[in-house]
Amino acid sequence: MRWQRELGPSLLALFAGSLITLSLAPYNIWPAAILSCCLYLGLLRSCSVNAAVWRGWLFGLGMFGTGVSWVFVSIHEHGGAGVPLAALLTLLFCGGLALLHALFAWIYARFLRDLMAGMLVGFPALWVLFEWLRSWLLTGFPWLYIGYSTLDTWAEGWIPVVGVFGVSLLCAFSASCFYLAYMRRHLQAYLIYTTMVASLWFIGWQLQQAKWVAPASATALSVGIVQANIPQELKWRREYFEPTLDLYRSMTLPLLGKDIVLWPESAIPNYYQRSQNFLLPLARRAYDQGTALVTGIPWREDGSSAYHNSIVAMAQGSGEYHKQRLVPFGEYVPLEQWLRGIIAFFDLPMSAFTPGKPEQDPLIVHDFRVAPFICYEIVYPDLVRDFARRADLMITISNDSWFGASIGPIQHLQMARMRALENGRYLIRATNNGISAIIDERGKLVVSSPQFERINLEGEVQVMLGATPFSRIGSTPIVILCGLLLAAVLGAGSMGLRLQHD
After folding, report:
1. What is the set of domains in the chain, with CATH numbers?
2. For the segment 411-446, what is each residue's pLDDT rounded down to a tens digit?
3. Considering Cα of 440, then 317, then 358, then 401, what sign does the dihedral take?
4. Which of 37, 131, 177, 323 is catalytic?
5. What is the pLDDT of residue 337?
6. How far is Cα 106 from Cα 408, in angstroms, rounded to an integer?
7. Residue 375 falls in the annotated catalytic set
């Protein structure tokens, strides 16, 4: 029967998709990304187009079902949904995202797989274009890019040159080469394809020796990060407001004298305009001791109905930044006129933020320009690049309490490391419950905190001069290249150049 014949490939598709998760943090088994793409090519090679769509959807379900399983934690533990409902909503979310892989598989099986260079060039180009599509479609969900698996590998040298989409192209192209070598099954093919892959990865190793940026001076800036570890279920309770202020005051006072003290996202559970009685005395003490105090805090102008998730710099710092990319359901509710009130997850505290303007100025800390990012924004490569190229340092704040003890915070940190390496800038990361960190211009952790501990993290950062190639040109050249490669493959196909399967 047909369903029995399809059972094996269906299970293999789920497994192949889940390998993407294994290639990324916290597992970091980087060859799993290449193996995943090889299996995907095999699954789509000779089946019907309808079967390819089904297998593509299952591949996506395996990928998102394992890679963003932390959504269940947010819905169940913090959204008040029972286990069955939380599991259903998580399945719907992951299944919806998996539809993009169903579309990917349809395009590949319908137009590319039988063309010369369709496997070698068409598959990796299409893969990257779909990763890029996820960076903006319906506000974007730029998670689980296979390029992140190249951190701490030979290919890492490519990252400041071509960015995450470029190294995703490298991974997918490597998979295509290995699959074609396997499919041809003769020595010449093995030598040709292996040499192509080895050469690209060797160039990546050589590029690690390049120095794209350099310290502005021999003097480093001292940094203190406050990780208060306030439980999410207490954070917005009225009776816990004063204890929260007392905690931040007591943790901050020993850090005054540092050049920068950073608090996490929404550290103070009240509007900035209503928190002056607490903030102003502390800011005066910080100013007197030469410290810039930077905090995440909600912002609402007097008389305005709009409020923002914001960062404010005080004392030896100045400026404010309003978050541009909001998290669906966490910071705004799509279709809220229908969804509000159905379950607690659709009525989370502070879930009606207004996005900030696209063009905002960097914060000023002492005499330096600082590019600020709030939580989810750090995972958008070009949003970060557009801001970072106008800045000397980067700051990101988050409240990863929403993820609980899942893999989400560790994935989030990995993506922050990628942004630092892409742009050649130090990145200071403050979170409520970990992982807070200082990341250098090469994406390496200088210091980091444990999760779920109340701690002051201290370290130093360097202001860097210069720019990486990615910082200068962004992702656009890679996206255009992938579009041109697809056009070339399809153009060759229109002239009758088709692949002869062995």
Report:
1. 2-211+475-494 (no CATH), 213-467 (3.60.110.10)
2. 999 999 999 999 999 999 999 998 999 999 999 999
3. positive
4. 323
5. 47
6. 30
7. yes
